[in-house]
Amino acid sequence: MRRRLPILAALLWALLTFGPLLGVLIASVVAGAFGCRLDEAGSYPCVVAGVDVGGLLSTLFVMGWLMLLTLPLGAALGAAGLVVWLAARRRLGQRR
Q: Where are the membrane-spanning stretches (predicted)?
């Protein structure tokens, strides 16, 4: 379990930091593939497999503004995590 903890922490960090970007990319690709209008002004009908996903695409797209918070926070957390990881590796190396 101890070997998986850094990997899990890195995955959670990446999801927190780049999650809004992933939502914007998914919404843009789906809207482009099905010829739907997509912008921050509002939601527009977009029928995919008989289901209107326009509201979902609009929400995913507008959540891109959340990157204004998540990118700086992720950068700070990533730098702190890197320092902790390097310190732990150095401490482990000195014990051996």
A: 56-88
Q: pTM to 2 decimals?
A: 0.76
Give the residues across from 51 on adjacent strands. 48
Distance CA(75)–CA(16), nearest Å, equals 11
Pair of tokens at residue 61: 């797209």
Please state, in angstroms and rounded to a whole number, the distance separating the CA atoms of residues 78 and 83. 9
pLDDT digits (tens, 9 = 90+) for 34-46: 999 998 888 899 9
- DSSP for 8-71, please give it: HHHHHHHHHHHHHHHHHHHHHHHHHHTT---BTTB----EETTEE-HHHHHHHHHGGGGHHHHH
